[in-house]
Design a protein that fits this description.
Chain lengths: 331, 346
């Protein structure tokens, strides 16, 4: 029995659909399905507005209640996340799932010291004593390699440099040993020489703690440094999922193929870059055909008429395109 | 089009010469506190040849944008000379002439367009200020929209908030070209764009450069983009130039330990060649009170006594074109890895 629970996905998203209502309607997420086993890092890769952050926020139930319509199911560690009541939700956040952001200001409270914030979180989530919380805070700051950790317990966020604040935010997020870490572009705002330090730190902590991580990024290089699997999003849908190597070396969907080809890395000066013509669609309507069709050089009539099928090429390797269908034998 | 600006100095005269540029911003300092300064740009010198693209790279806060704004005369400088095609700016060349000959495209495409003007009006505005008739300026604006890949029928009468970020950046480029400038400064001009749109805009910049005979100063923190677009590159650290040279020479043989770290910090492009050890540790120090001697010495693995006591000057690495400000390349500097003083004389 324990074997089965070890291999069952820790995070399972099925047909998640999220629409923001209000002044104008935004169909931000349109039928996303994902499965993440224990101890793996999944990269959510896509351009701005493709729905990466909204998907993550749904996993933490952080979306504004009033103006959001959500359907589908989200299961994390056996719990039906969309059905959790307030008490269950507060136990769920921090202990089961925790989140880090591009901007540490979203996670760190400016009026409390770093030490107090971590202590408080441990006391609240684990019912631990203040002394235990404080000891954990020190342990965490050392774990994320903040120099002179003991002294930094009493520092306020604004007294730290950008890289240090990012480390403090990671310490806070991991203090209660969550099973799943959601990372929303945590290194995008950092300088190059600091970004790589934080990426390597996250990689190491993930391995040591055996966490599952969903890592949102628009930078394929960052994904290469940290992810095991990659899901590529376009216009609120996942258009391709596979292992990191599958996606980097052998993407099948025309969108990730174009994205990988248009990179300037290694391009010769004076040589024209490959481009994907056009721009992503506005999300004012729910997709009823392939969202990429207006920009796709392979588009045909059927692509404009109905949603392309999600074709499973091999276990864990899914491509949402009519072309993929033709490459697998009909069974 | 406004008349092209006459070439005065000939091909051998650099289009832009920057000598000893300094900008210190006062910060803090209340009634009793001593005022401190941010040494945003500290003794920066370089040249840009006619028709060349020079890249500037470095981490956030190292002084790239301040350098650009000083060149555009958007703020006063503490010290330094700017010479455009042989003319000393502020003396033999007026600010008005400079502001036509040199144009800038910013990262934030939205903030740099007037929200109450249509795209056509925004592009036509500059030429009208410089004396072009309204009808001619509007025709020019529509021509330029076509040049940057935006259909005038669709876009001319839209307002900035009615187009995407990539389209707005094209509008900004069209607006910069409307005065028929010779030098265009692009400050993180593609950084906010998504990768698929970034490639479109880079192709456009390459095409326009050829068509209008432009010279570019291209500022970016993205090393891949800088390598692709630049002929030569300057690397900045805490307000100073630490290395400069032809882009391939710098990439293939970076001489300054900071440049080496910056290049090594780029995320891998092959899943089987992931980075295992961070090239340097720590964050860039505060520019309010930069380290003594070599400003990089607090993070450098090769630091010796001379690095803490003495400022390394930019010195030749291989030939006259590739220079670095590091005691390890300065003959007889006293660093154990420096070439002997006599080698330089030979
Ligand atoms: N008006 C100002 N007043 C005080 N300090 C300033 C001002 N403008 C810039 N600075 C400081 O000067 C230094 C250089 O700034 P600058 O914006 O030129 O750097 P940059 O390399 O272009 O950074 P980024 O990549 O983040 O835009 C920074 O420390 C910055 O905080
Ligand atoms: N609270 C909100 N109200 C309305 N629209 C939103 C809200 N949050 C996100 N959106 C829209 O949802 C889409 C996806 O956003 P997001 O997931 O943040 O993109 P990204 O992939 O850049 O993280 C965008 O069109 C965005 O404007
Ligand atoms: S379904 Fe059709 S339009 Fe969509 S990506 Fe595939 S080929 Fe292109
Ligand atoms: S001068 Fe010294 S401290 Fe500075 S980069 Fe060179 S070796 Fe390092
Ligand atoms: Mg986002
Ligand atoms: Mg800048």
């Amino acid at each position: 029995m324990s074997l089965a629970s070890d291999t069952a996905p820790l995070v399972e998203i099925d047909n998640l659909t999220i629409r923001f209502t209000g002044e104008r309607t935004v169909h931000a997420v349109n039928g996303v399905s994902l499965a993440l086993p224990k101890g793996q890092v999944l990269g959510l890769l896509g351009e701005s507005g493709s729905g990466k952050s909204v998907t993550l926020r749904a996993l933490m139930r952080l979306l504004p209640k009033k103006r959001t319509q959500i359907s589908g199911t989200v299961r994390v560690a056996g719990q039906d996340v969309l059905a959790l009541d307030d008490d269950a939700l507060s136990a769920f956040r921090g202990r089961t799932v925790s989140m880090i952001f591009q901007e540490p200001a979203l996670a760190l409270d400016p009026v409390y010291t770093i030490g107090d914030q971590i202590t408080e979180s441990v006391v609240r989530h684990e019912g631990a004593s203040h002394a235990t919380g404080r000891a954990r805070a020190l342990e965490m700051l050392e774990l994320v390699r903040i120099p002179s950790a003991k002294r930094r317990l009493d520092a306020y966020p604004h007294e730290m440099s950008g890289g240090m604040r990012q480390r403090a935010m990671i310490a806070l997020a991991l203090a209660c040993r969550p099973q799943v870490l959601l990372a929303d572009e945590p290194t995008t705002a950092l300088d190059a020489t600091v970004q790589i330090q934080i990426l390597l730190l996250l990689r190491e902590l993930q391995r040591e703690m055996g966490m599952s991580v969903i890592f949102v990024t628009h930078d394929i290089g960052v994904a290469i440094e940290i992810c095991d699997k990659v899901a590529v999003m376009y216009a609120g849908q996942i258009v391709e999922t596979g292992s990191l190597r599958d996606i980097v070396r052998d993407a099948r969907h025309p969108y990730p193929r174009g994205l990988l080809a248009s990179t300037v890395h290694g391009a010769k000066r004076g040589q024209r870059l490959e481009t994907i013509p056009g721009t992503p669609p506005s999300l004012s309507e729910a997709p009823s055909a392939c969202s990429f069709a207006p920009r796709c050089t392979f588009a045909r009539q059927v692509c404009r008429e109905r949603l392309p099928p999600a074709v499973e090429l091999s276990p864990g390797r899914v491509v949402r395109c009519v072309l993929a269908q033709e490459t697998v034998p009909v069974t | 089009m406004l008349e092209p600006i006459e070439d005065l100095g000939g091909a051998a005269q650099p289009l832009l010469e920057v000598k000893g540029l300094v900008k210190h911003f006062p910060v803090g300092g209340g009634l009793f506190a001593k005022t401190k300064v941010v040494q945003a740009v500290d003794d920066v010198s370089f040249t840009v040849a006619k028709g060349e693209t020079v890249g500037i790279v470095g981490e956030s806060g190292c002084g790239k944008s301040t350098t650009a704004r000083l060149l555009m005369q958007l703020m006063p400088r503490n010290e330094g000379e700017i010479i455009f095609d042989g003319q000393l700016v502020g003396e033999s060349m007026s600010l008005r002439d400079l502001r036509r000959a040199m144009q800038m495209v910013f990262q934030d495409s939205y903030a740099s367009l007037n929200p109450r003007l249509t795209i056509e009006e925004s592009i036509a505005f500059g030429p009208k200020v410089h004396g072009m008739a309204d009808g001619a300026a509007r025709t020019l604006a529509r021509d330029l929209l076509t040049k940057v890949g935006l259909k005038p029928e669709t876009f001319a009468n839209r307002y900035p908030h009615e187009v995407s970020g990539g389209q707005r950046q094209r509008v900004n480029i069209a607006r910069a070209l409307a005065l028929n400038p010779r030098l265009v400064i692009l400050d993180e001009a593609v950084s906010a764009l998504d990768k698929s749109v970034e490639a479109q805009v880079l192709n456009l910049l390459v095409d326009l450069k050829r068509e209008f005979g432009l010279t570019y100063l291209f500022i970016s923190h993205d090393l891949n983009v800088v390598r692709y677009i630049s002929d030569r590159v300057l690397v900045m650290y805490l307000g100073q130039v630490v290395e400069l040279g032809p882009v391939d020479e710098v990439w293939d043989g970076p001489a300054h330990p900071y440049t080496q770290a910056l290049l090594a910090a780029m995320p891998a492009s092959d899943p089987d060649q992931r980075t295992e050890v961070p090239p340097i540790t720590g964050d860039p120090p505060n520019p309010i009170d930069p380290p003594s001697g070599c400003r990089f010495h607090t993070r450098c693995g090769f630091c010796e006594d001379v690095c803490i006591s003495t400022v390394p000057r930019l010195s030749m690495v291989a030939d006259g074109a590739h220079q670095a400000a590091c005691h390890m390349v300065i003959p007889g500097s006293g660093h154990t890895r420096a070439p002997a003083a006599s080698e330089a004389a030979a």
